[in-house]
Amino acid sequence: MPSVQNATFANQTMQQRIAELEARLARVTAERDKLRRAYELVREQLELLRRRLYVAKAERVDVQQLELEFAAKKAELEKLATQLDEPSPGDEPAAQGGGDAPKTKPKGRRNLAAIPMAEERVEILDPALEGKATRIGFEESYRLGYRRGGPVRIVLARATYKTTDDAGTVSMTTAEKPKELFRRGLLAPGLVAHILIAKYRFGIPFVRLSKMLSCEGVVLDDGTMCRYAEDAGATLGSIVEACAAEARAQAFCLATDATGVAIQPTPLPTGARQSCAKGHFFVVLADRDHVFFEYKRKHNSDAVCEMFRGFGGYILADAHCIYDALFRGDALLSPQDKPPDEVACWSHCRRHFWEAAMATKDPLAREGLLRIRALFQLEERWASLAPQQRKHRRQLAARPLVDEFFAWAREQFARLREVRGLLAAAFGYAVRQEAALRRFLDDGRLPMTNNASERALRSIASGVSL
Fold first, then answer.
1. In contact, 374 and 385? CB cutoff 8 Å
2. pLDDT mean over 112-131
């Protein structure tokens, strides 16, 4: 009997020991799986960062080698300058005492007639006096203009007439100048337009543009160009404001995006150095008819509400949280107005799947890319159709693909939502933005992507000097 009891006790002890070991194994296994998942997540992020830096590494310049070449060229230049400063045997001093005569700063208007360049003559006649009074000559003035191929000197020749009244008194009358945007200015409208387009369309800083013009024989400092740009903005700003007001009142869809820029701070009285401030440029495309740029100090909901206040159409933007206030109705002028409808960008959705496929090589990420690719191929095929025809094709061919995509995405996200990673983030983005991503199906005028806004911002992001 005691042996049976001992066996039973030993069996119970063994069962208890087995249960403890199984619990410990389950705990260790869970910890191992957690560490393994953390390792995979870090590896994905590392692979993504490595791929993002690949192009930057390929284009990186050897700064040390450039510094050595610069030092060698500088030494060679200083040697040549020393040789040029040495007086030749036949030279005589320019003034007594061996020193050069002090140069005086030039005064008055620049003499454009002395600059060798192409010339265009514009004769301004007085229609009321032409043929009735004696034309005795022209009063000429000069402007610095620009035509295709380079700078040009514009000669404004205003006709001067000799008139005699009934009493026999002789007087001279000169034809009136046409109305000018910049009165008594040195630059003609052609050169002003060239400067503004180079600056704000192609992102060429004024200091670089000044060097480019000097190579063409035009000495024009960046301060003068700044003043002309400021005057043009102050004068023509009312036109831009009117266009923006018209867009907010009548546009069907406004596409927007933003980029950060470094702003040079105001110099301190002490001359101490300080870091640059960060500002933000927003771009707004109104039905692709107007392209507006607006600077905001902050990238927040207040900034976008101020920009789109009163607009009740469609707004195409990325899924940034600052735009949520617009779709909640925080920018309405009255409670009876309707808030704008959100249109999401399929390129942003595709980018998440691309990053997941690039870093994890997961078949689900590649499948997501193939499903989205089918939609892009259809849109490319329908690009030349009228909006009503495009909407009809979207309903017949694109809508079933969109329904299948989101049904598949919801199923996969329900399985992966507890697991952090790029793949779960891609499915989460698609599921959370489903309503906005579907909205392009409602109207053939709505674009599928916001790529046009990003292309418009490229001139800002590529180096506009502020």
1. no
2. 77
Tell me: the pLDDT tens digits for 129-172?
Answer: 887 777 877 877 777 778 887 888 888 888 888 887 777 788 88
Rounded Cα–Cα distance for residues 136 and 121 (Å): 18
415 half-sphere exposure, CB direction, 13 A CA radius: 7
- Under 8 Å CB-to-CB from 66, ≥6 apart: which residues? none
66 in helix, strand or coil?
Answer: helix
What's the pTM value of the predicted model, to 2 decimals? 0.65
317: closest CA among 339, 284, 352, 280?
284
Strand order in the sheet with 277-286: 290-296, 277-286, 253-263, 314-316, 341-343
d(CA 249, CA 222): 38
pLDDT grade for 271, boundaries at 50, 70 and 90: confident
End-to-end CA distance of the chain: 98
- What is the distance between the alpha carbons of residues 200 and 214, in angstroms, rounded to a whole number? 20
Burial 184-220 (b: 16+ CB within 10 A, else e): ebebbebbbebbbebbbeebbbbeebbeebeeeebeb
CA 287 to chain CA mean position, Å: 18
Pick from 442, 331, 448: nearest CA to 395: 442
